[in-house]
Design brief:
The chain contains four helices and two strands. It has helices at about 10-25, 40-50, 55, 65-85, and strands at about 1-5, 25-30.
Amino acid sequence: MKATIFHNPQCGTSRKALALLEERGAHVTVVEFLKTPPSRADLGRIYDRAGMTPLEGLRAKEPLADTLPSIIAAVVDGAVLSVKSGGRPRN
């Protein structure tokens, strides 16, 4: 079995996942994502292959998770205002 893990050596869950893959005999490619972050396009492909959205992949412990509701509300509010004023939402 081949596997790629986007690994954070400081994260216990990541260390456990890597150890489990190695115990199962997987040929593991380790990418330390804090040193070599994946591109936006790569992240999109990763989430697609995993069958999940980026929001579903966001850890609740991440600082972004605390601010995300207000960010989403601002984006949605801006899109609603654009549509109601005869424009199109910006991508």
